[in-house]
Amino acid sequence: MTKKMIAIDLDGTLLNKDSQLSHYTIETIRKVQEAGHTVIIATGRPYRMAYDYYRQLELSTPMINFNGSLIHIPDQNWEWEQNILIDKQYLIDFLKEEERFEADFIAGEYKNKFFITQNYLENFSPALLGVERITPDTLIHPERITSDPHSILMQTRAADKYALADDIKRYFNDELEINTWGGPLNILETCAKGVTKASALTYLLDLYRMDAKNLIAFGDEHNDIQMLALANRGYAMKNASATLLPYADRLTDYTNDKDGVARELRKLFLD
């Protein structure tokens, strides 16, 4: 069988509702890799919030974080690492509109650190940011924003996160990419214009000298649209957002809580 690149989202896709990997999923990914296929995590999550899953899956491939703003191999000084940053002025402008965007928090995300607003700490769990607690040294204010971030992460109280994403795009004159996370949380993530999971995967396909016809992708949310459109075989999860369905070639038979990705991979490569 021709070797494939398999790009997999995390939240709402590979992870269950408790943000965990099942033993069945871990074992399946291991066997797929042993069969010679290249498994790539492609997530909106920051690096620190995806690293443990990368290790559980025993991956050694590049990882895509921040919806494509960071392409790297964890724990390695990889010569082809790619960082695409947002002008820091956008983050400063976001902070000015904290109430307009009904933000529980706004965070400037960097590869190995973050700064965050702390006016509504009771509205979210620190675990969402990959830490045990939010500490005063991470408090964001304009004078601390001295370098360009990979992304801007925001949780909103707005009833419709998709409508808010469109509103923010208009506010910034369509100069940024704004996507929603999978799962139940009202999370928006902002990247530099033109940065998507698909742009990152195109970069990796070129490095691996592979064609998109050998790309398989799994996703569940708005930020997976371009990735599924790029893939020769793009799977939307059974639990996927309706916004993604028109771009999918197939729908998984099972949800993320029922090992939907692993079951499809077993059918494709192991059964």
Automatic annotation (TrEMBL):
Looking at the keywords, is Lipid metabolism present? Answer: no
Q: What is its EC number?
A: 3.1.3.-
What CDD domains does the record point to? HAD_Pase
**Gene3D superfamilies the record matches:** 3.30.1240.10, HAD superfamily/HAD-like (3.40.50.1000)
Q: Name one GO molecular function term.
A: magnesium ion binding
* Enzyme type, top EC level: hydrolase
Task: Supply the name of the protein.
Answer: HAD family hydrolase
Q: Which organism is it from?
A: Streptococcus acidominimus
The organism's taxonomic lineage, starting at the top: Bacteria, Bacillati, Bacillota, Bacilli, Lactobacillales
